[in-house]
Every structure is written in structure tokens, then in C-alpha cells.
Amino acid sequence: MSRNYYISHMNDSLKIELEMLLALKELLLKFLLGKENKFEAGVIMRKNQEPIAVIGAGSWGSALALVLADNNHEVRLWSHNEEQVKEINEFHTNKKYLPEIKLPGLITGYGSLPAALDGITNIILAVPTKAIREVIGKMREVLSGPITITHVSKGIEPDTLLRISEMIKEEMPADLLRDIVVLSGPSHAEEVSLRHPTTVTVSSENMAAAEKIQDLFINHNFRVYTNSDVIGVEIGGALKNIIALAAGITDGLGYGDNAKAALITRGLAEIARLGTKMGANPLTFAGLAGIGDLIVTCTSVHSRNWRAGNMLGKGKSLDEVLDSMGMVVEGVRTTKAAFQLAKKYEVKMPIATALYDVLFNGKDAKAAADVLMSRGKTHEMEDLVNILEERNE
Ligand SMILES: NC(=O)c1ccc[n+]([C@@H]2O[C@H](COP(=O)([O-])OP(=O)(O)OC[C@H]3O[C@@H](n4cnc5c(N)ncnc54)[C@H](O)[C@@H]3O)[C@@H](O)[C@H]2O)c1
Ligand SMILES: O=P(O)(O)OC[C@H](O)CO
Predict the structure, then answer these.
(1) What is the per-residue pLDDT across 279-296, written as a single tens digit (0 to 9) for each?
(2) Is residue 188 in contact with ligand 2, taking CB distance under 6 Å?
(3) Which ligand has the nearest atom to the CA of 152?
């Protein structure tokens, strides 16, 4: 017999008591299964002991700070912009980057780097690739003990052609650096901050360190996988941005869905070829840091790279586009790096090369698309197969 049948046959005081017990049971179940927002459950839960520093209070740093706070961590969110720090602490907002969002009380804004890093062992580094060396330079001046840096940036440095973990190793003295972890995957800050379901992957040369970071971030909105291929995860995250710029351009030109699917697929082929030649596991490109991030960045209106490409396709100049964005468009610098990497590793990267010509040689976007479409005949998989065979020799 149903719960409602029993309830309808009880006297009023028993009914009230039973309803109260059932409500309490549901609350407890929600809490135990982690379905309850943890700040609401904060009366019962103690906050986790060691604070975590998030360096960079742009869209991604702020969204990740929010995930950590949802997991009951105390977060020190550092910004080099004092006005922004004031806004975070007084109004619990960061309107330029996440206009819709109220930041939880566990997040405190810091303008002083020594104060933000005092006693910290876990740092989430969330600044654009171009700022990495400068920011690490400032951090090493104030750190006293070894730290784990989890970087969440998606780029490659032009000219040195270094991945971000390699730049960090160059800048941070070994005695201050315990581990480097990279967090990547299809994850727009706008959706993460609304607590929409998101999946990412973390990778490190020390998988125990990656697993610790997985534990810090994972919750029922933000599912974190691990992957032991640091090169693949970093290359996939960086290079998807240039394909998203190209996808934005074709959308701006009005070329439609076939063209975009072609860019995503052939873009993935370029990324897999280069990444595999650089030592990545080709399977990584079938995962979150590969096809996953490529899909979201090429198709989402949240993507700064897609939006920048879209404006270029509609006829705006690169300077006009970058001036109007107000946020980092990583793909522009990474296109330079990819163009140079293709030469260095002797890998065919026709999309990256066409994009390089549009961005830096003033080539008309339609003409660049024509060049791509009228190349000589090829086999879809041949180049990747050759690279894999070379590696096995
Ligand atoms: N926004 C996203 O959804 C998202 C998701 C995943 C990864 N990422 C990656 O995260 C990185 C950061 O992106 P974002 O979206 O937060 O960028 P953003 O433009 O929103 O914010 C960048 C932040 O870095 C700060 N900054 C810039 N130069 C600095 C410097 N020299 N010193 C100190 N601070 C500096 C800015 O003031 C700003 O607070 C990028 O590599 C991006 O590709 C972004
Ligand atoms: O807004 P974008 O183009 O920098 O992309 C953000 C994230 O990397 C998507 O995963």
C-alpha cells in the first residue's frame, strides 16, 4: 500500500510527525549523496583546512574558485587589479567576467601576492599564457616552501615553442616546485559558474599529484578524470583554439555546418599529427582534451576564439576584434606557435597555415578557404599512420 494511503488514514498529529520525519530523511539523503549545495549545508560541515590560492581572477580563475568553494575549500582569489579585489570582497561579484554570478563567502579577493601565497601549498594558475612567465616570476619571489601548481591555461609560447608546464619548469626553481598538474577539457567558465554539468581531465608527470587535484575539484556538477599524457592534454587544449578561430571565420563567412564539421574533423587530424610527433598518446585526442574541447570551442557562443573568428569572417580586422573582446583570445598567439611547430616537426598543418596567413599576412579569409579546398588529393589517415610507424621504428 502506498505512503499516501497510510497518511490519509492517520490522525492529524501523527500525520504531521510522519511528514516531518520524511522531510528530515530526504534532507539527510540529499546531504549524504552530495546533492545539497554545500554552503547551505555549511551549518553541519566544517570548511576544509588548507586554503587554496587561485592566481588570476578572470573568467576561468573565478569559475574554478567557485567550484573549489562549492567543495568547501577556502579560496584566496588573487588579482593584479585592486578594483576587482574590492568588488569581490565588498559585493561578492566579478561582473566583468561572470556577470550573472554571486561568489560564495569562502572566496576572498587578494591584491597582495605575498598575502595570497602565505602558507599555501596548492596553487591554481589561471592567467593567459602570455602572462605565465611574469606571474611565476612574482610568485617565486615570495614563496618559501614547495608547492603544487595546477595550470589551467591553454596556449603554447611562440618562438620558444614551449608548453605551459615547460615554461613553469623554466621559471620556478626546482626546490619550490613539488608538482605541476594541467587541468583541461571542454569547460566554458560561464556554464561552470552556473553549475551546469561539465567534464575535464587532469594530468601530471606524477599521477598521485593529478589524483589529489581530481579530489579537490570533483563534485556532482564538475566531473574530473585523470590522464597520464601531459603532452597530449596540453597540446590538445592549446591547439583547439586555433581551429575554433577558423570555425568562427567560416561561420562568419556563412559557410554553414558542413564546413564547420570539416574543420573540426580535419583540425583534429592536424592536432593529432603534431601532438603524436611531439610524443603525445594519439588516444588523448579522442578524449576530453582533444575532440571534447574542440567540439565545445568550435560550436559555443561562449568561446572567445570562435567569437573572434566570427568577427574576422564578417570582415573586421584583427586589431578591431582584439580591442573589442576585453578577454584573452589565446588562439591568435598559438597560431604563430603552431605555424612554427609545423615547420620544426615537419608536420602538415594546412588549416593552421591558412589561418596564419589570414591573421598575420593579410590574406582574405575566402581566398584562404579556397586554398584549403583546392589542395592535392590525400588519404584521410595516411599522415598520422606514417607518424605512428616512424615512432615505432
Ligand atoms: N574562460 C574559460 O572558459 C576558460 C576555460 C578553460 C581554460 N581557459 C584558459 O584559462 C586561461 C585564462 O583565461 P580566462 O578566460 O580566465 O581569461 P580572462 O581574459 O577572462 O582573464 C585573464 C585574467 O588574467 C589577468 N591577467 C592578465 N595578464 C596578467 C598579468 N600579466 N599579471 C597578472 N594577471 C594578469 C587578467 O587581469 C584577468 O583577470 C586561458 O589560457 C584560457 O585559455 C579559459
Ligand atoms: O572561450 P575560449 O575560446 O577561450 O574557450 C574556453 C575553453 O577553453 C573551452 O573549453
Answers:
(1) 999 999 999 999 999 999
(2) yes
(3) 1
- Tens digit of each residue's pLDDT (9 = 90 or more) over 221-243: 999 999 999 999 999 999 999 99
Which phi and psi (to 5°) does residue 147 adopt? Answer: -130, 160
Q: Choose, from 38, 95, 212, 240, the residue flagged as catalytic.
A: 240
CA dist 103 and 119 (Å) reads: 23
Please give the distance, rounded to the nearest whole angstrom, from the Cα atom of residue 184 to the centre of ligand 1: 14
**Strands 177-184 and 198-204, bridge-based pairing:** antiparallel
Assessment of whether the complete model's pTM goes beyond 0.95:
no
Looking at domain 239-392, its CATH class is: mainly alpha
The pLDDT of residue 389 is 96
Residue with the smallest CA separation from ligand 1 atom 26 is 127
Q: Is the CB of 304 under 6 A from ligand 2?
A: yes
Domain ranges of the chain: 3-36, 43-228, 239-392
Which ligand is the nearest neighbour of the Cα of 154? Answer: 1
Name the CATH architecture for the domain at 43-228: 3-Layer(aba) Sandwich (3.40)
Instruction: Give catalytic status of residue 366 as yes or no.
Output: no
What rounded mean pLDDT belongs to the chain?
A: 91
pLDDT tens-digit map of 96-108: 999 999 999 999 9
Nearest to 350 by CA among 338, 362, 359, 361: 338
